[in-house]
Every structure is written in structure tokens, then in C-alpha cells.
TrEMBL record:
GO biological process: COPII-coated vesicle cargo loading; intracellular protein transport
Keyword Ribosomal protein: no
Described function: Component of the coat protein complex II (COPII) which promotes the formation of transport vesicles from the endoplasmic reticulum (ER). The coat has two main functions, the physical deformation of the endoplasmic reticulum membrane into vesicles and the selection of cargo molecules.
Residues of the Sec23/Sec24 helical domain: 542-639
Name recorded for this polypeptide: Protein transport protein SEC23
Gene3D superfamilies in UniProt: Sec23/Sec24 helical domain, Severin, von Willebrand factor, type A domain, Zn-finger domain of Sec23/24
Gelsolin-like domain mapped to chain residues: 656-742
Organism: Rhamnella rubrinervis
Entry similarity comment: Belongs to the SEC23/SEC24 family. SEC23 subfamily.
Length: 784
């Protein structure tokens, strides 16, 4: 079974593709029943239907290819709850040779993009003539259907667009602000005229810029030390709080002058950005006074008063830690160092607990108002990303930790967020909800990813909560085509399940596109129940998806537990897993074997134990928060690169080849390309480096050397260009100090205690090698 090809069709990776028919048997699998879901994955042939979905009146499932249809009486039976439903009048022409696209057997994923907001199928005039070209004879090609519907799906750009509030730290150096202003002005130039924009600047005070006042520059000041409620913020800004609106209704903006469309305030906000100057006053022995938490709260209060549930972004640009007001990270006295992991473990952090509590309240406000928090931090020191992680992650926001606003990485990140499609609309997927519908023999445990639980319960929700649980619906402020969630399930065996029968799971993702139109993508899939001794269980195990899912579980536990406890849990789980699925003679470690479907999983766990996600040595809290945030939203392929990096070898012998992630792969006459997702290393063997330094690659007689040196650089540039944020590119020679980035991730098969041949690299460590780890695993597994 090719799980990658299946993912390209469904957007899903299952840890187990065949499930045991009882709760007890599923618990014996050791690895939880889970699905890695990328709800908006780019697909080559995605049918876009310009009408609203037909929904089951009982369970809320959307009409899909697994429904049983009686064409003569125009009724359909839900595959999930078996309820009888009538088709709306607009489906009067339905027949075996005239199917709506959602009933095509090959369309497990469809996207609904109604031509106008809140349109129902019965009211959609386009449905009366061949379902607006979405319902057609079976001979109609997908490409013609998509092309005919794409113009209807996006609508026009008139009306209210998404809102952006730029929150700028003016305690930055003047040259840094100059680079930041240049990029902000570029963003403003390219925003649609309907987009709403606001500007907040801060140092020890917060300034909300009045972009509707053209006589002169006018701001409303807030003191940085005060924590104000949303009502107080709106009272000072003289904004009346709006009533909650239903999703899909046209938003009505309260008349004010702090958040206006680009069309109304382009000149004023451009002038305000140009007039931003550094307020950095260096006091010897002290950090700048910076009230980041207050600035975020004020910007959120502005959006809460103007927009509700329409999709907005607060984009914070800062260059240092908060030293004032709510959310403070460290005080301004430089004699007090910013917190480290050891400080967090020992409790020597006077501000951490209060700041986390403050940002937890901010997270709830962000969720209630459908606002995304993005963080762009460019500093050589920590800025408080560990405390800000919860509101950024739970809202689906973007986090970038860099060194300078002048860097190419920052420019590319900001431009990537504001990418536009061929129609000129922003390619943003805002204010998203993900709903899961299952058959009654499956229960939903929870989710791990950039989302929050909406606490909506029904009979399908399990009392065994994992991550964001207690619900069948989750909310995320923003999604991308690569945002991935891990969903967890358990078997509900209150009624006997027959092995061989099918069960169904449906993922319903509703979001606002960049033009604020509502879209809904529906993924419906089926899998089979099998007996516990069935060979289909082993054949259906996806060890890559299982490793990615276990990594998310591990970092979820690591937020409240010590690293040694997480490693012990991972080891215990792996031992039970190996004992369950290994072939061996009791008490005979040398007889232990794992089939190919399971053989890589122990290796993944070995590298996960040693990764920066669990072992935080040599990482600061901000870096750890960033690493874990990225892992918690990345798909299976990207997660595996983070856990077990890739290593390619370039030599004169032929094209590049993958080699073992082992110190033995280092050789003087080869070049290694190492990819750990967060950084890419080009490692030159000592001979290659010497030839390069002597300039042999510039000699026409050594053309092969020039090509050998160019090949890894071209591949590395491609890797860097594909990812946002871009990984750090490091070029180093064998035995140089920068080679530590590679050596730290390699399997230490040769250490200071090993017998090795002259010229071999060694790793100075007391860590177990992969071989010793597997030997210990085998010994313990055969004893269980």
C-alpha cells in the first residue's frame, strides 16, 4: 500500500489503515488510532462546486459518494447515521447518468464555493440549470467543470476585506526600522483596496494611529504598564462594541478612524509608517522599556470592537523582550539575565507564570474574535517567544525568529504571507473550523495542532481526551495548504462490530478565502474493520505517520513534564510495540526480527529521543518553543525530516546518493548535504576543502571538481527556497567549528571509546549509538 499516493488523493495519513473491531484489541496496538490530516492540501484535480452542500438533517454529514441514493424518489440515506434525507428541489434532475459531482465515486474530496454568501441549495438559481455546471452527465470532464465554476467561486473583491493591524516595536535600531518600514510599505502597496489596515507602535507607551484624521498625525496613547480590559480599550478609542455575528453574514464595520480600508486611508497610513522612528534610548546597564503585551492587547481590543468573526491578523514586529507591563519577560536591569531552561525547571522565573497566564487569556480572546497573531522577532537574544507560543499557535499564526529585519529570510516570510492568486485575491484561509463526523462505532478523542477546541459534544465524542479534546469541532484562525493536524480516535464497541465491514470518517473544513467568501472543503473516506489476527493490520501500519504522531504526543507531554519522563515514556512504548509486533523466540534477543512495515519505527524513535524537541540542551526556551510550534503543524514528510534529518553524499563516482545518518558517512573526498528542516549544511571533506582553497575548481582542466562543488549548492538553494521560514544555510569544512551542526545529529557509531582507523571522524559523547540502542531494545522486547 503506497501511503504517499493515498495522501495525495485524501490529504490524510493514517497510523493504522485497518482497525481492530474492539476497543481492547485497538488498545493492544500500542500506537494510538490517529489520522494526520492536511485539510487544505493542494491537489491536482480538486472539484470546486459553486453551490452549497447538501447536509444530513440528523448528523450533519455532507452528501458523499458512500451515501445510498434512490433516484426515483429523490431521497438519500446517510452513510454515517443511516437517516433518510430528501434532495432539495434544485436536484430534481438527478439520475444515474446525471450525478452531482459530490456523488462521483472518485471524488473523495470536494470543495464548495457558493457564488454568493450564505446561499442555500434551494435558493441558488444556478442549481436549476445543471447545478451551475457542477452537476452534469458522467461524461463531463473534471477540468471543464473546474474551469466553468472557478469564476463563480471567488466572487468579486468589493465589500469588506480581511483586516491587518501592524504592531511595530520602535525600540529597534534606526537601520532595522528602516528595513522594516520598507517592507511594510511594500505590503501596503500590494494589499487589495478593500483590506482594512491599522497601525500600532510601542515602546514604554502604546500608540494607536488615527489614520482617518488627515489634518496632522494623531494617536491615542496607552500606558505600557496598565492591563486594560477590552471594554476599557474600546472606551478610550471611542469604539462601540458590536454584537456577535453569524458566520457568513456580511460584516458591518463600526464607523471609526483607526481601522480603515486601504482605499480610504492609503495616504495617511503610508505617511504614518514613513514617520516611524526609533525611540531607542540606551541607558547603560539597562534594556529598553518595551510593553509588547500591552500593545498586543490594545490591537486586539481594536479588532474586537470593529470586527467579529471575519478573519483578521495582528502582525507583531519586535526586536527584544518585553520589560514592562503585562506579558513581561525580564526586567530592564541587565544584571538579571533572561530565563533559561534551567531557570524554568528550578522555578527561578519571577515573570514566566504571570506572563503565560496573561497570554492564555489573550489566546481565548483571539479565538473568540477569530483573530490571528503573527510574530516576527528579529533579535540576537530571546524576545519571549516561549510565552507568546500559545496565542500564536492556537490562533494558527506565523512565527519567525531571525537576526535582522534586513535579512532575506524576513522579507521572504512577509511576502509569502501576502501572496495573491491569479484573481488578485490574497491567498489566505482565515477563520477556519474543522468538523469531524464518524460512524457510531468510532469515537473522537481530540486533536493536536494549531487549533482550539470549540467544546461541542455529541455521542461521537470520547471522554478520553487527547490534546484539544471534548469536541467534534475545532477552530483555527488561519490555515495554509500545508497546515497539518493530528486527530485521535478510539473504537466504540458498545455494539458488536463485524470484521470486514466498513466505517466512515468525514472532515468538513470551513474557512474564509482572501476575498472573505465562505468555502467548505469536505473529505470523506472509508476504512475496514478487521480481526486482531488479520494480516491487514500489519500491512496497513504507516510507520512514518506513526512517528510523526508520536512526536506530537511527546512535545505535548513535554510542556508539563521533564525530558527524562518523556524519554522513559517513549522507551516504554517502543518496548511494548516491539514485543507486540516482533518475531522472536522468548528470552532470545538474537532471534528478534521486525518486518519491513515496522523496521524503521525504532530508528525514528531513537532520533526523536535525541532531537531538540525533547533534549533541550543547547537550546534556549524561545528556540524550543519555535521548534515545537513548527513540528506541531508540519505534515508527515516535514516532521520526519525534523526527527531524522536526511543526508546525501556527492562524489566523483556518480550522482548524489542518500547515505546513513552516521559519522562513518564522513569522508575526506566527498561532500555531504545535510537537511534537518531548520538548517541545511553543506559539509566539505578535508581533501575537497583543500582543493577548493587552492582554486583547483577554477582551472578548466578540473571541470569535474567545479561541477561537484556546484551540485550540492544548487540542491541546497532549492531546499531553502521551498520552505517558509527558510532554513539557515551553513557551509563548513571537515574538522571546522561549524561542522558541529552536522556532528550533533549523526549517529555516534564511533566515539572516543571506540577502536577506529586513522583518519576517521569521531564524536565525543556518552550517548548510545543506534546499534547499541537496538540491541538493548531487542533484549528488553523478548523479555516482555
Amino acid at each position: 500500500m503506497d501511503f504517499v499516493e493515498l495522501e495525495a488523493i485524501e490529504g490524510l495519513r493514517w497510523s493504522w489503515n485497518s482497525w481492530p473491531a474492539s476497543k481492547t484489541e485497538s488498545s493492544a496496538l500500542v500506537i494510538p488510532l490517529s489520522v494526520m490530516c492536511t485539510p487544505l492540501m493542494q491537489q491536482a484535480e480538486l472539484p470546486i462546486l459553486p453551490y452549497d452542500p447538501v447536509v444530513c438533517c440528523h448528523c450533519g454529514a455532507v452528501l458523499n459518494p458512500y451515501a445510498r441514493v434512490e433516484y426515483a424518489s429523490r431521497i438519500w440515506f446517510c452513510a454515517f447515521c443511516h437517516t433518510k434525507n430528501s434532495f432539495p428541489r434544485s436536484y430534481a434532475g438527478i439520475g444515474e447518468t446525471n450525478l452531482p459531482a459530490e456523488l462521483f465515486p472518485t471524488y473523495s474530496v470536494v470543495e464548495y464555493a457558493p457564488g454568493r454568501k450564505n446561499a442555500s441549495p434551494s435558493a441558488n438559481a444556478g442549481m436549476n440549470h445543471n447545478w451551475a455546471n457542477g452537476l452534469s452527465s458522467s461524461s463531463l470532464s473534471l477540468s471543464s467543470m473546474v474551469s466553468s465554476s472557478s469564476s463563480l467561486s471567488l466572487g468579486d473583491s468589493r465589500g469588506v476585506g480581511p483586516a491587518f493591524v501592524f504592531v511595530v516595536d520602535t525600540c529597534s535600531a534606526e537601520e532595522e526600522l528602516r528595513a522594516l518600514k520598507s517592507e511594510l510599505l511594500r505590503v501596503l502597496e500590494q494589499l487589495p483596496e478593500s483590506a482594512l489596515v491599522g497601525l500600532v507602535t510601542f515602546d514604554s507607551m502604546v500608540r494607536v494611529h488615527d489614520t482617518g484624521f488627515s489634518e496632522c498625525s494623531r494617536v491615542v496613547l496607552f500606558h505600557g504598564e496598565r492591563e486594560l480590559s477590552p471594554d476599557q480599550i474600546q472606551q478610550f478609542l471611542r469604539i462601540k462594541h458590536m454584537k456577535q455575528m453569524q458566520l457568513g453574514k456580511t460584516p458591518v464595520i463600526q464607523k471609526q478612524s483607526f481601522l480603515l480600508s486601504v482605499y480610504e486611508c492609503e495616504f495617511n497610513i503610508t505617511s504614518a509608517v514613513e514617520e516611524i522612528h526609533s525611540s531607542l534610548h540606551v541607558v547603560p546597564g539597562h534594556r529598553p522599556e518595551r510593553c509588547t503585551g500591552t500593545a498586543i492587547s490594545v490591537a486586539l481590543g481594536l479588532l474586537e470592537g470593529c470586527l467579529v468573526n471575519t478573519g483578521s491578523r495582528i502582525m507583531v514586529f519586535t526586536s527584544g523582550p518585553a520589560t514592562l507591563g503585562p506579558g513581561v519577560i525580564v526586567d530592564s536591569n541587565l544584571s538579571n539575565a533572561i530565563r533559561t531552561h534551567r531557570d524554568l525547571i528550578n522555578g527561578y522565573t519571577p515573570y514566566h507564570g504571570k506572563s503565560c497566564s496573561f497570554y492564555k487569556r489573550v489566546s481565548q480572546r483571539l479565538s473568540d474574535a477569530s483573530v490571528v497573531l503573527d510574530l516576527f522577532a528579529c533579535s540576537l537574544d530571546q524576545i519571549g517567544a516561549a510565552e507568546l507560543k500559545e496565542p500564536v499557535e492556537s490562533s494558527g499564526g506565523f512565527m519567525m525568529l531571525g537576526e535582522s529585519f534586513e535579512s532575506k529570510t524576513f522579507r521572504n516570510c512577509l511576502r509569502h504571507i501576502f501572496t495573491r492568486d491569479e484573481e488578485g485575491h490574497l491567498k489566505m484561509f482565515l477563520d477556519a473550523t474543522i468538523q469531524i463526523v464518524t460512524t457510531k462505532d468510532v469515537k473522537i478523542c481530540g486533536a493536536l495542532g494549531p487549533c482550539v477546541s470549540l467544546q461541542k459534544r455529541n455521542d461521537l465524542v470520547s471522554s478520553n481526551e487527547i490534546g484539544e479534546g471534548g469536541t467534534y469541532m475545532w477552530k483555527s484562525g488561519a490555515l495554509t495548504n500545508k497546515t497539518c493536524f493530528a486527530f485521535f480516535f478510539q473504537v466504540n464497541d458498545e455494539q458488536k462490530i463485524e470484521p470486514g465491514s466498513a466505517f466512515f470518517v468525514q472532515f468538513i473544513t470551513q474557512y474564509r478565502y482572501g476575498n472573505m467568501r465562505i468555502r467548505k472543503r469536505v473529505t470523506t473516506v472509508a476504512r475496514r474493520w478487521v480481526g486482531i489476527r488479520s494480516s491487514e493490520i500489519n500491512a496497513g501500519f504507516d510507520q512514518e505517520a506513526a512517528a510523526a504522531m508520536m512526536a506530537r504526543l511527546a512535545i505535548h507531554r513535554a510542556e508539563k513534564r521533564y525530558a527524562r519522563d518523556i524519554i522513559k515514556w517513549l522507551d516504554d512504548t517502543l518496548i511494548h510495540f516491539a514485543s507486540k509486533f516482533g518475531d522472536y523466540v522468548q528470552e532470545c534477543a538474537s532471534s528478534f526480527r521486525l518486518s519491513s512495515n515496522f523496521s524503521l519505527y525504532p530508528q525514528f524513535m531513537y532520533y526523536l529521543r535525541r532531537s531538540q524537541f525533547i533534549d533541550v540542551f543547547n537550546s534556549c526556551p524561545d528556540e524550543t518553543a519555535y521548534f515545537r510550534l513548527m513540528l506541531n503543524r508540519e505534515g508527515v514528510v516535514g516532521s520526519l525530516i525534523m526527527i531524522q534529518p536526511t543526508l546525501f553524499q556527492y562524489s566523483f563516482d556518480g550522482p548524489p546518493v542518500p547515505v546513513l545518518l552516521d559519522v562513518r558517512s564522513i569522508s575526506p573526498d566527498v561532500i555531504l548535504l545535510f537537511d534537518s528542516y531548520f538548517y541545511v549544511v553543506i559539509h566539505y571533506g578535508s581533501k575537497i576543502a583543500q582543493w577548493r582553497k587552492l582554486g583547483y575548481d577554477k582551472d578548466p582542466n578540473h571541470e569535474n571538481l567545479r561541477k561537484l562543488l556546484e551540485a550540492p549548492e544548487l540542491d541546497a538553494e532549492q531546499l531553502v527556497a521551498e520552505r517558509v521560514p527558510a532554513p539557515k544555510l551553513i557551509k563548513c569544512d571537515q574538522h571546522s567549528s561549524q561542522a558541529r551542526f552536522l556532528l550533533a545529529k549523526l549517529n555516534p557509531s564511533i566515539t572516543q571509546n571506540s577502536t577506529y582507523t586513522d583518519g576517521s571522524d569521531i564524536i565525543l559523547t556518552d550517548d548510545l549509538s543506534l546499534q547499541v540502542f537496538i540491541e538493548h531494545l531487542q533484549t528488553l522486547a523478548v523479555q516482555c
